[in-house]
């Protein structure tokens, strides 16, 4: 006996670091469902999970993908619009904006537990809809169940009838608004599992380049949209469950036609030959960000040492020092980040030796720090300056700088930094 309570609070789900982990539940959300515990949920489905054959999993993924693809390409935001003609942003262009204030409690209960729990529950609901994948004309034609044109016409009439019933009745839900909330929440989770590359979503094993709306009178049983190529891992899953932040239109004949559109995020800051946009799944695994439509896309950057930043919408410098992409000797050198590259400067206590072409230990500085040299200010200052300045000027950086005719009072930043730190610490020791 289900006791359904009204949930008035907003629910925010924390992202998980691994798709196998269960997402935390809000107390209010738990109150809205069964009185069963999570262990009860696990026990109820344990036998079915154990008996879930690869064939069943694949068939269930196909049915759920079809059902949610129908939502993505044919439905609209029922919260704010009464007709698809008034929609400003279709669902295939992005998840609803603003996001759902409250996730559908039942979808959240099963889909936050595990992928198999989610798939089993979604599959049960998808099979209760008026329009099901097994009755779609496209599926019947591609599977060979339809033998001739007459059978195809009969199948199409039946498919269109089920489609109208599905559009009007919204079975098995209590109206269109609940179905919209349910299918949006289901899309959130299935897209999230796709970004985490759950192996069962790698390939559907059938064409997915249709909009789950019976036969397309213009394109026929296949649209040949390159974004729905099941030969490429996880493309069909992403096409069925996720919006496309790079190519937000309903259909593309080629990816080149997507790159040439102004709504391509990489369009404005790149020349025509470098407007390729991609979504790296490993960089889009946070559930809350997916729900909010905060996608990390990747664009091509022409300058070496720069990468695309989705946060700022432009190419930014790669900090090789922080990412440990440099080649500096960790014992004797420090990495100094520069625009598009980096430089290796000698660490404190080392000076660059031109003959050896490496940073060597500064014995005089070490002696000053340990107090093993006598503090005779008149003679030692001369000795320090005669030792530091020529050694610094002999470095490749300084030599090249002076050869180009620069004034000796204007040193490059990295070299002057090394010289200044060395001089200041020595003089501080002397004056104490």
Comma- or semicolon-separated keywords:
432 residues; mainly alpha; two-stranded antiparallel sheet; elongated
Architecture overview:
The protein is mainly alpha-helical. Among the domains are: about 25-215, no CATH class; about 335-430, no CATH class. It has 15 helices and 8 strands. It has helices at about 25-30, 40-50, 55-75, 105-110, 115-125, 135-145, 150-170, 175-195, 235-240, 255-260, 285-290, 365-370, 375-395, 395-405, 415-430; strands at about 275-280, 295-300, 305-310, 315, 335-340, 340-345, 350-355, 360. The protein has a two-stranded antiparallel ribbon. Strands 3-4 form a two-stranded antiparallel ribbon. Strand 5 and strand 6 form a beta hairpin. The N and C termini lie far apart (about 85 Å).
Short description:
By secondary structure, the protein is mainly alpha-helical. Among the domains are: 27-216, no CATH class; 333-431, no CATH class.
């Amino acid at each position: 006996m289900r006791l359904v309570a009204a949930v008035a609070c907003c629910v925010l789900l924390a992202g998980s670091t691994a798709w196998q982990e269960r997402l935390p539940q809000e107390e209010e959300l738990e109150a809205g469902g069964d009185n069963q515990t999570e262990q009860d949920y696990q026990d109820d489905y344990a036998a079915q999970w154990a008996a879930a054959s690869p064939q069943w999993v694949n068939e269930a993924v196909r049915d759920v993908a079809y059902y949610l693809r129908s939502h993505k390409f044919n439905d609209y935001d029922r919260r704010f619009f009464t007709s698809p003609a008034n929609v400003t942003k279709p669902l295939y262009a992005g998840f609803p904006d603003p996001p759902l204030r409250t996730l559908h409690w039942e979808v959240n209960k099963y889909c936050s537990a595990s992928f198999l729990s989610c798939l089993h529950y979604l599959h049960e609901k998808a099979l209760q809809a008026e329009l099901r994948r097994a009755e779609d004309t496209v599926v019947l034609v591609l599977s060979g169940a339809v033998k001739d044109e007459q059978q195809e016409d009969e199948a199409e009439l039946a498919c269109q009838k089920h489609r109208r019933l599905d559009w009007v009745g919204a079975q098995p839900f209590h109206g269109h608004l609940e179905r919209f909330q349910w299918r949006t929440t289901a899309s959130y989770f299935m897209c999230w599992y796709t970004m985490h590359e759950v192996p069962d979503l790698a390939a559907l094993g059938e064409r997915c380049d249709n909009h789950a709306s019976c036969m397309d009178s213009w394109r026929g049983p296949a649209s040949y949209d390159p974004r729905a190529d099941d030969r490429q891992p996880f493309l069909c899953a992403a096409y069925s469950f996720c919006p496309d932040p790079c190519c937000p239109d309903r259909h593309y004949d080629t990816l080149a036609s997507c790159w040439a559109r102004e709504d391509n995020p990489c369009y404005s800051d790149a020349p025509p030959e470098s407007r390729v946009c991609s979504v790296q799944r490993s960089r889009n695994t946070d559930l809350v960000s997916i729900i909010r439509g905060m996608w990390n896309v990747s664009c091509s950057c022409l300058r070496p040492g720069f990468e695309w930043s989705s946060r700022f919408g432009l190419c930014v410098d790669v900090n090789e020092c922080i990412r440990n992409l440099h080649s500096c000797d960790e014992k004797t050198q420090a990495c100094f980040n520069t625009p598009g590259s980096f430089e290796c400067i000698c660490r404190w206590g080392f000076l660059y030796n031109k003959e050896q072409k490496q940073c060597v230990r500064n014995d005089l500085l070490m002696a000053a720090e340990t107090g093993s040299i006598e503090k005779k200010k008149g003679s030692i200052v001369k000795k320090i300056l005669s030792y530091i300045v020529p050694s610094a000027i002999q470095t490749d950086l300084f030599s090249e700088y002076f050869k180009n005719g620069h004034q000796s009072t204007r040193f490059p930043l990295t070299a002057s930094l090394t010289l200044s730190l060395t001089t200041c610490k020595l003089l501080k020791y002397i004056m104490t």
